């Protein structure tokens, strides 16, 4: 295609877009879905035609007229048409065809609105190019919006805010780690140190190094909502962000605490390194006694105490509130569960109450953990898909949010202490009391 022909076609498309915008403005309304779709198609055509132009032809005029150059818009900067000046990089605002750079922060121009209205640039779609699971694609969630979703999620999560997060640039990653070892013989699975005389021979050691493999697991959340919500998305976007964020937090936490490791992260309760503390002799079924908690503290690795947190089944609160420790001979008691400035503590360590542990009386209803010893591999991409077909008869839409991550403890086993008999770990759980 000749340069002149490309420029003329772009001018006509730009004029058509401006006419659509002027009509909507004159009627004091936003573009209809049909108008938005048509604008998106014309903007895509402009992008394709721009490939035939030399770099200097992409310079955007500042007067907002059709006579001076190729890229034109009602704002005078050309970004409303998806064009840019020489050397400028695209951003999400230009890809969604906003008329003004500041409009991205306006509720009239948003990621969800663009997806539902058809204004999303085709460059944001993801095609069926995955490692193992075929997909019909979707939209990559902009980094700004993904950050908002994660922020909502982190406010409600237990593990992620406290764990070690390892970014993943591919489907899997190997992390080098030392073997935990047996301190009665050596450290780290083979490290030995000894005092040596001058010119004495130093013993050779062979510490064992192991490899941890993280494989990204796909977590998918589904939403079903009316087309009216999609059309009125400026008021519903914050709801979608909250639903997506809190949904992610709930299921991620559940997997990081209770996951089997088969097709999902390996949770703390099922890890080989987690120590289980048995119930007391003669303890009544389904109960929690003070000795259970002190025994758990005694099995926590000493270096983990200052980072540790209690994770307790929410229905255990009544029993914990009734637990106390006698002090001296005067009949004074000290409550085991205490509160200071809104923070609950047991034996000086913070307590988090949740429904995502096991039921009271069941193994894992109370956990003492140093979550900094748990690693989460997190893929940066988050994908959003939507469909109008599944519930066409009821005029409803389906949407799904997809994130990929993995998680497992950094320890492969509990540590045997120097005495050769007792073991400690960053993760301790209370056994069944049946």
Structural features, described:
Helix content is 26%, strand content 24%. It has 434 residues and is α+β, with helices and mostly antiparallel strands. The chain has a domain at 3-124. The strands form 5 sheets. The protein has a 7-stranded mixed β-sheet.
Helix-strand pattern: HHHHEEHEEEEHHEHEHEEEEEEEEEEE
Low-pLDDT stretches are 55-109, 118-137
Q: Sheet with the most strands? A: 7 strands, mixed
Span of the ends, CA to CA? 80 Å
Radius of gyration: 30 Å
The total beta strand count reads 19
Approximately how much helix is present in the residues? 25-40%
Oligomer: single chain
> Which percent band covers the strand fraction?
15-25%
Question: Short description, anyone?
Answer:
This protein has 434 residues and is of the alpha+beta class. It has helices spanning 3-26, 33-50, 92-95, 111-117, 143-155, 227-231, 233-258, 290-298, 317-322; strands spanning 125-126, 138-140, 164-168, 172-178, 209-215, 217-226, 275-277, 308-313, 324-327, 332-335, 337-340, 343-346, 349-354, 366-370, 374-387, 396-409, 415-416, 423-424, 427-430. The longest helix is centred in the middle third of the chain and has 26 residues, at 233-258.
